[in-house]
Amino acid sequence: MSAERAGASLQSDEAAASRRMALHHGSVGHAIEANGLKRAFGRRMAVNGVDLRIRAGDCMAIFGPNGAGKTTLLRLLGGLLKPSAGTAVVGGVRLPAGDEARGAVGLIAHATMLYGALSARENVEFAARLHGVRDYRAAAASALERMRVLGMASAPVRALSRGMQQRVAIARAIVHAPSVILLDEPFTGLDDSGASALTTLLTTLRDGGAALVLVTHNLPEGLALATHVSVMRDGRFARCEERSAIDAGQYQSEYRELLSHDA
To answer: 3-262 maps to which CATH number?
Structure first.
């Protein structure tokens, strides 16, 4: 396929994704809406009554100590766990909904979950095909290029460094142009070039109408991308506010003080 035809087809896929996003959210709807969301593991309540509203084009950064329930919340929103109680609608799909919900979501987790024997290109193309992307080859090439790893696309994933594997995993997560992107410490393992590529990518996706939920321990990274910020403790939101309403320096000081109480 020529570069012109590939580009035209990719633009068509991206336009279709934009139309799906508009249908899901409308002009006033929420990309993510959760009410009283809970998840228990035995007697331990990992997520304990979370209410959440995120619109298309918003990025919520979630901070909090280890064990606060942040990763469990992302797994609930991604359709990977069933809630013990409560309801959630993500990307226009009421959870739990299996493949339908996962099709609306791009999830970047701690583990890359890549197939080590396959090349970077094959991993991303495989994900694109699973999500029904029409020109999966062009979509995969574009996603790899956005993460500045296209030059290593033919290498087996097992031969790549941890940071390069993370770049491939991010490319795989966004190859189907999801309307909701869930990120669990996505900057882990990335060098300066990879971190810059990811920041540019997330900014572009947010500005293009995707809804982002970013879990991170790095306050500067989170505050730089966020439209809303929250702190999670003991399975609940202890603090939640608009980014524009806070001073970054004061917020970091208050956050460190909060964490010191948990030490």
So the answer is: 3.40.50.300
